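Name: precorrin-2 dehydrogenase
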Amino acid sequence: MLLYPLMLRLEGQPCLVVGGGQVAERKIESLLEVGARVTVISPAITAQIQDWVNEDKLRCHLRPYQDGDAAGHIVVVAATDVTEVNEQVARDCFQRNILINTVDIPSLCNFYVPAVVRRGDLTIAISTNGASPAVARRIREKLEATFGEEYGEYLQLMKSLRAQVLRDVTDPKRRKAIFDALAEAGLLDCIQAGDDQALKERIAQCLSSS
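Structure predicted for precorrin-2 dehydrogenase:
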């Protein structure tokens, strides 16, 4: 079965995590990183989750999941160690057409959470269609070694240059020529080498291209 890859904007969006253990903690952290409004439902929670509650970073209901709790949420993660509860959450979400990821049970998911490499604006997601999260992690580790932190700086620069060109250049063909020149100018090599002078010269040459 082929999956449709997409990136979700969850900033300010209501998301629910059912479970309060270490696995749930990791899922909560990833949702908080992208600015989601997180609610947790679990009879017990880790010290870290409690810290987030104390810091007003999320809401928490210290009780078991109840039918209907998923309503109104964009994304739900079922991360308990009780199969019956995970099945209850998944069933609730399927009936309401809510995105649900049930940890380690692909049959109870309508989306999978990929292994991710982040470098500033660069996001690389790796999925094995739920076949082997361990393999996805291994691939992620290899990509982390290939794509260093300098890619974040590189893309921030390219973002700034793109905005400048869109503002100053009105001709579509010339815009495209400049964008292509910037992409092929070896700017990343200059950043990796710490050669600011060469970086400035290459940018100037690209911006003057027609």
